[in-house]
Write a structure and sequence with these properties.
The radius of gyration is 22 Å and the shape is globular. The protein folds into three domains: 7-166, no CATH class; 182-248, no CATH class; 259-301. It is 50% helix and 13% strand. It is built from 13 helices and five strands. Helix 5 packs antiparallel against helix 6 (170-179), helix 6 packs antiparallel against helix 7 (183-196) and helix 11 packs across helix 13. The chain has 301 residues and is an alpha/beta fold. The two termini are 31 Å apart. The longest helix has 25 residues, at 234-258. 27% of the residues are buried. Strand 2 (56-65) and strand 3 (68-77) form a beta hairpin. The chain has a five-stranded mixed β-sheet, with helices on one face.
């Protein structure tokens, strides 16, 4: 499945249960066990500089850690390939947040710890340095006076399908879907997720997000209300899964009847004729944006 880091993706991690699963399953640090997620809260506002708004988004949580506040920021990388100097952008983000605290809290004497997470769902391997000090030539000469700021990477394509299936929660299923969208496998996983989930709202949010992404290629603002539907029974979830499988099977059958490449073009042609968005056509066919636009222009002539 082609990955989209849209506002709907951000909405997923705005759910406290999904946030908790991300931290407890994918941040393997000893101090995580001491986080009190019952008292976590989403911090309003963004501290991403205007220059990076188009390629970067953020979510910040305040969590109690041994009686004190600790901030965890999830930075979402929109680009399909790694940004080499992303460590500098993240260091600037933390400093901007600290400046905000200093300006807004006059009695502040100590700054709280901030743990930065970079969440990346692009197809290319993540090769960018994790620490600012790695980007500074001759930084070792400065010793303790050199600038150091390291972020924690969660790279979706670095996890094997086997590991993700073993974890078996909402976040691992999301990563599994991003890496390899297999409708039949996901149907099985979603069924089990809903059955064992204590937080039906969180799993319903994920199921709705996945369904909207599958049908439309991306989450539009008008679809946000649909994300909030909470399922009460396994039967409701099964009906939604069956609808996804049926549509996927129809598309696959059309491709098999007309040959692989010709089938993709035929599918794209039919979908364009039905007014389907380019994002959805790319999702179904794997054709490039350029190929679909070219076909669209030829149909309009």
């Amino acid at each position: 499945m082609q990955a989209y880091h849209d506002r709907g993706y951000t909405k997923l991690f705005s759910n406290k249960e999904i946030f908790r699963q991300l931290i407890t399953s994918f941040v393997r640090e000893a101090w995580v066990k001491d986080l009190d997620f019952s008292k976590c809260e989403l911090v309003k506002g963004s501290f991403v500089s205007q220059k990076y708004k188009k390629t970067f988004s953020d979510l910040m949580y305040k969590v109690k850690f041994r009686g004190h506040d600790l901030y965890i920021v999830i930075l979402l990388e929109f680009k399909s390939a790694p940004s080499y100097f992303v460590a500098v952008q993240i260091a600037g983000y933390i400093l901007d947040f600290y400046r905000h605290l200093i300006d807004s809290e006059k009695r502040l004497r100590k700054l709280p710890p901030v743990f930065p997470i970079l969440l990346y769902n692009g197809k290319k391997s993540w090769t960018s340095p994790l620490n600012v000090v790695e980007l500074v030539e001759g930084a070792t000469v400065l010793g303790e006076y050199g600038l150091a700021c390291k972020y924690f990477p969660i790279i979706e394509n670095a996890f094997s399908p086997k590991i993700l299936q073993q974890i078996g929660n909402i976040v691992s299923t999301l990563f599994l879907a991003e890496a390899n969208f297999d409708a039949d496998l996901l149907a099985l996983k979603l069924d089990k997720l809903f059955e064992k989930a204590e937080d039906k709202q969180a799993v319903s949010l994920f199921i709705n997000w996945l369904a909207q992404l599958f049908h439309h290629g991306k989450i539009s603002e008008k679809d946000y209300a649909k994300l909030g539907q909470v399922y009460q029974s396994k039967e409701e979830v099964s009906m939604l899964i069956e609808a996804i499988q049926k549509e996927k099977a129809q598309i696959r059958a059309l491709g098999e009847r007309t040959g692989v490449q010709k089938g993709k073009m035929k599918i794209a042609q039919v979908m364009l004729s039905n007014g389907e968005p380019i994002e959805k056509i790319k999702l179904y066919t794997g054709l490039s944006n350029e190929a679909i636009v070219k076909l669209q222009k030829s149909l309009q002539q």
